[in-house]
Design a protein that fits this description.
There is one protein chain. With about 400 residues, this protein is of the alpha/beta class. Among the domains are: about 50 residues, no CATH class; about 180 residues, Rossmann fold. About 35% of the residues lie in helices and about 30% in strands. It has a nine-stranded mixed β-sheet, with helices on both faces. The protein has an eight-stranded mixed β-sheet with strand order 11-12-10-13-17-16-14-15. α2 packs across α4. It is globular, with a radius of gyration of 25 Å.
Length: about 400
């Protein structure tokens, strides 16, 4: 962990020059280089600056100070910047490395960010100076103490509770995280018009709407991975937003969650397109609503089948179906033995490795198969990207 003395050293011209001169080197080599002053400290900063190139490029470019633990727990800048909150004043109760506060500074006249760790608070103050951000105030205090004593009123409060226990165990339930937002809500609602809560992507959407019925629950995915679940309180009604970063966003009423899948017999001959729902759609359990106009599903966690190609942006990947057959490994093996095959699976106990072994295929991209179970039967779907 960084100390105040470490921070002072990292702010010095000597160490900033050492970091700049070695920024492209292997951090392990830097740590062992006796020519580098405070080599271990410099090497650690180089390691995390290099890692910040993609996740936090603005911190990398400004050669900000990056405490390792704060980096691991921080939002990416891309994720922080896409949050749909704006107004005059924002209170950030979970400053950390300050990424969400920095992003919010573009959409608010004034941001107050609370951080109980004195060293981390000082790091963020310094980084804000390097980045030229002058409308964020860092307050060194616990969020509980600040909320209990402030006399200000804010347009928004943002809170990203610490989801790790003192032993490092991951926490999911809101009441187990720090701060305990549920306990604080009566006070938060007195000092702010609306509250934005960032939670673990494992948090249940139904539970979020039960706790905050008149809210917008947002499920965010990036590159096929569910990244976060956000709650925005005091919405006009209960809604669920699916946000696939770089693809699009879709809004659903809370009544559209868990629409029952089709109970009709599966006819393998009538489907021409396969849709693989985005992970955010599956997490939000709105697949039935998302595809109801043009596709059929036999499970909220499975594939969607369409007769015609869907138009416009949809929350999922679309493939052309060449044919659909019952999964018979021995017959498949005659065609796939030794072939490089990419396998997609949904709603089946069959594993990708198990299927490859059974059909004699290897990992690769010469062919594509989708495997699923519908009404107790295993099916193999021969697919290819639409561009081919």
């Amino acid at each position: 962990m960084l100390t105040i003395s470490d921070v002072e050293l990292l702010r010095s011209e000597e160490l900033r020059k050492a970091i700049e001169e070695n920024i492209e080197r292997d951090p392990q080599r830097v740590a062992l280089d006796k020519r580098v002053p405070y080599a271990s400290l410099v090497a650690t900063q180089i390691k995390y600056l290099q890692r910040a190139r993609k996740k936090l490029p603005h911190l990398y470019e400004a050669r900000c100070i990056i405490p390792p633990r704060a980096f691991e727990q921080s939002s990416s800048m891309e994720s922080a910047e896409r949050k749909g909150i704006s107004g005059d004043t924002l209170l950030d109760l979970s400053c950390g490395l300050g990424i969400d506060a920095m992003a919010a500074a573009r959409n608010f006249r004034r941001v107050v960010a609370v951080e109980r760790d004195e060293v981390l608070a000082e790091v963020v103050r310094y980084n804000l100076t390097l980045l030229g951000v002058d409308n964020v105030e860092i307050v060194t205090a616990s969020s509980e103490d600040y909320v209990a004593t402030t006399t200000e009123h804010f347009d928004w409060i943002f809170v990203d509770p610490d989801r790790r226990s003192s032993e490092g165990k991951k926490m999911v339930r809101m009441e187990d995280c720090s701060p305990n937002v549920l306990d604080m809500m009566p006070r938060l609602e007195k000092i702010a018009s609306r509250v934005a809560i960032k939670l673990s992507p494992l948090f249940d959407v139904d539970e979020a709407l039960r706790l905050f019925p008149n809210s917008e629950v947002e499920v965010v995915s990036m590159a096929g991975e569910c990244k976060e679940l956000n709650i925005y309180t005091h919405a006009e009604r209960g809604v669920v937003r699916v946000a696939a970063v770089g693809v699009g966003e879709w809004l659903f009423d809370s009544e559209e969650i868990n629409i029952p899948p089709s109970s009709a017999p599966f006819d393998a001959m009538c489907w021409h397109y396969l849709i693989v729902p985005d992970v955010a759609v599956q997490k939000a359990r709105v697949a039935g609503a998302a595809f109801k106009e043009y596709a059929t599903m036999w499970s909220n966690n499975g594939f969607a089948f369409a007769e015609d190609i869907p138009e416009g942006d949809i929350p999922g990947r679309v493939y052309h179906i060449e044919r659909i057959e019952h999964y018979r490994p021995k017959e498949l093996k005659r065609e796939m033995k030794g072939v490089g095959v990419e396998i997609l699976k949904r709603d089946t106990r069959l594993s990708v490795d198990e299927v490859r072994k059974a059909i004699g295929a290897k990992a690769g991209s010469e062919r594509m198969l989708a495997i699923t179970t519908i009404s107790g039967d295993n099916w193999v779907i021969y697919i290819k990207p639409l561009s081919l």
